[in-house]
Amino acid sequence: MGTAQSREDRITDSESDEDYEEEEEEEEQYDDALSDHQNTQSSSSTSTSSGTQKSLDDIDAKLKSLKLKYNSQQSSPNLKNPVKLYLHIGGNTPKAKWVISEKLTSYSFTKENGDNDENCWFLEVGTKVRVRVSTEMQLKMFGDQKRVDFVDKAVWALKFLSDEEYRNFVTQFQNCLFENVYGMEASEENKVKVYGKEFIGWMKPEVADDSMWEDADDLSSGSIPVKGNRELMEEFEEAANGGVQSLALGALDNSFLVNDLGVQVYRNFNRGIHGKGICVKFDAGGSRIGGSPSSSTPKKALLMRAETNMMLMSPENEGKPNATGLKQVDIETGKIVTEWKFEKDGADITMRDITNDTKGSQLDPSESTFLGLDDNRLCQWDMRDRKGMVQNIATSDSPVLHWTQGHQFSRGTNFQCFASTGDGSIVVGSIDGKIRLYSKTSMRQAKTAFPGLGSPITHVDVTYDGKWVLGTTDTYLVLICTLFTDKDGKTKTGFSGRMGNKIPAPRLLKLTPLDSHLAGNNNKFHGGHFSWVTENGKQERHLVATVGKFSVIWDFQQVKNSAHECYRNQQGLKSCYCYKIVLKDESIVESRFMHDNFAVSNSPEAPLVVATPMKVSSISLSGRR
């Protein structure tokens, strides 16, 4: 399992020449005809016979027909921005290869009106390529080859004639991308406006202090090393009865799938999850768990109280995640315990997401609080009454969750997603790309706010120790190191204090242009997660995200390694392209690693669970080669 190695890593002209032989033969005919033409012209000054004139006309006609097949720029010695253009064919099959599309052409960055009538930068290459400059191009750099690859309805490569021309192109591309994203010229002054002075390493990665990445690497050296070339083995695959909406993994005996019928129960094993044939139906007393009979299927499931209870949240309106309340299900009896309302100061409010107080609090049998997030709200909810007693559901007409702490921001935060650390600190991702870190003691003001890179954060996760944050965008994942050294020389995280000026530059996790193209034009990254640990001293070992029919797995240790081969010859933020892919036959709903409890001795990781609308699979990193 996992993708075969594509032939995208290196382009050799010999590889493409055989596909260009026919055109080369025509070029030779052109050269021969041109030579004949020149010879005939010199002899025509001494010969005026009709045969000679006829021969001259024939040669001129031949020249004209051949010349039409070639771009006139190809023979121009003063061609501006010259490049070779290649096209990748054959996908990821054994016959995959690069072919020459244009042996010599030129590129330009032009400013034009886009689809939304906005004035933005486009990249044009000869007559074959015209694409808006954006992260959706998935541009990948190969500095040692003086080459870039990108996607525009197909996978293309540009090879430059000199290192200077290659670097000029990359600089122009990054400047145009900045302007398209932020609507301002990529000047030093504007970059400071966007990122702030303390984030100098984000706008100038070449001067960033990477020492924290190395220190963090040393701090986690006690974890089990992950060796390369591990096989991904499918242990279980079962039908999921259709309509899978979400996956709730347990750290104890059971895990759960929420689908259109109800909540399906699975047994946890060291090799994955296996169906128990039990389904908690949504119908209860004539109403669905989602709310009224017409309400939508729950999209969010949260385990609580030693995984004996589950909170289910359904969107109030189709197409939007915000909900006005949730249902509490007793998993052991299969019954709805109550329906809770979200309320503050006597007024009904909505929540777009909920999560546990800490990474491991779902294992606490007495857990009665959880966190809530809305567009401009961050809070903690309590299921007990104000006197500290659990509410008596039987005598309560419409139980109301108590807002115990939090903050309702006036405007502009546009929160999208959040997650908690092992000690209850909170990371929040926003639509403007910002990632905020809140300490466990205050939700009013972020201790650290990382600037956005131009793409909305759709999902966020954090390691148990709070040292690493993973943000998901549509086209890449961003990995942030939160460690810094305070004025007393102590190493802290950005959850506990302001990080100052020596903030490490983030690293990006991307698909290669070829894999991005194979994943599909409209497929986007979603649900980036670390593997799951709930103990101090244990280190997460992998990261996983989903795009289309792909589950993509990165080796965490490899991503953190500054000497990793992916980072050589790159300009800008370091981007990692080393990963394994689990390919399914339908779009994947969610991919999550099981709890570290289920990692066996010959495997570097607990099994990966992959849910599609119709099936659920368990994948092990077996260690077999």
UniProtKB/TrEMBL annotation:
<feature type="compositionally biased region" description="Basic and acidic residues">
    <location>
        <begin position="1"/>
        <end position="13"/>
    </location>
</feature>
<protein>
    <recommendedName>
        <fullName>Vacuolar import/degradation Vid27 C-terminal domain-containing protein</fullName>
    </recommendedName>
</protein>
<dbReference type="GO" id="GO:0005737">
    <property type="term" value="C:cytoplasm"/>
</dbReference>
<feature type="compositionally biased region" description="Low complexity">
    <location>
        <begin position="40"/>
        <end position="54"/>
    </location>
</feature>
<feature type="compositionally biased region" description="Acidic residues">
    <location>
        <begin position="14"/>
        <end position="33"/>
    </location>
</feature>
<feature type="domain" description="DUF7135">
    <location>
        <begin position="46"/>
        <end position="196"/>
    </location>
</feature>
<feature type="domain" description="Vacuolar import/degradation Vid27 C-terminal">
    <location>
        <begin position="294"/>
        <end position="568"/>
    </location>
</feature>
<dbReference type="Pfam" id="PF23581">
    <property type="entry name" value="DUF7135"/>
</dbReference>
<dbReference type="Pfam" id="PF08553">
    <property type="entry name" value="VID27"/>
</dbReference>
<dbReference type="GO" id="GO:0005634">
    <property type="term" value="C:nucleus"/>
</dbReference>
<dbReference type="InterPro" id="IPR015943">
    <property type="entry name" value="WD40/YVTN_repeat-like_dom_sf"/>
</dbReference>
<dbReference type="InterPro" id="IPR040458">
    <property type="entry name" value="Vid27"/>
</dbReference>
<dbReference type="InterPro" id="IPR013863">
    <property type="entry name" value="VID27_C"/>
</dbReference>
<dbReference type="InterPro" id="IPR055559">
    <property type="entry name" value="CYPRO4_DUF7135"/>
</dbReference>
<feature type="region of interest" description="Disordered">
    <location>
        <begin position="1"/>
        <end position="55"/>
    </location>
</feature>
